[in-house]
Amino acid sequence: QLQLVESGGGLVQPGGSLKLSCAVSGFLVNYNVGWFRQAPGKEREGLSCISGRLGSTAYADSVKGRFTISKDDAANTVYLQMITLKPDDTAVYYCAAKPSWTDTYCSMSDDYPSWGQGTQVTVSS
């Protein structure tokens, strides 16, 4: 089973920054990886993804310009740099992975077979 472990969440003031990490127990070239979040009372929301083979990226409109996804293949780690955080960003953040040969370019659809446990991000003044 593919394992994913998120870290880096915490409490931050509005306007602050956090960098989340997703450690993957496999070579990243083999997987497209996405970041998702779920706030209380809301559906899970796709935020960003990165393709394993090409490293191409995609972003949801709600985070475009504020969040940046990247990966370090040598470290088997995908990152989500978040800046200018807002209270509406408060949620549990998850990373997820699926085989990269299923899609040349990544998507933020909810069909990823492997998920991490999540890390809490709280933006509060």
Walkthrough of the structure:
The chain has no helices and eleven strands. It is an all-beta fold and 125 residues long. Strands 2, 4, 5, 6, 9, 10 and 11 form a seven-stranded mixed sheet that branches. A four-stranded antiparallel sheet has the order 1-3-8-7, with no helix packed on it. Strand 7 (67-72) and strand 8 (77-82) form a beta hairpin. It is globular and about 45 Å long. The mean pLDDT is 96.
Summarize the structure.
This protein is an all-beta fold and 125 residues long.
Mean pLDDT: 96
Uncertain spans, ≥5 residues at pLDDT below 50? none
Distance between the termini: 40 Å
Instruction: Determine the strand fraction and express it as a percent band.
Output: over 45%
Number of helices: 0
**Which percent range fits the helix content?**
under 10%
Largest sheet: 7 strands, mixed
Query: What is the general shape?
Result: globular
Q: Rg to the nearest angstrom?
A: 13 Å
User: Helices and strands: which structural class?
Assistant: mainly beta
Write the layout of secondary structure elements.
Blueprint: E1 4-7, E2 10-12, E3 18-24, E4 31-38, E5 45-50, E6 57-59, E7 67-72, E8 77-82, E9 91-99, E10 114-115, E11 119-123
Features:
four-stranded antiparallel sheet; 0% helix; mainly beta
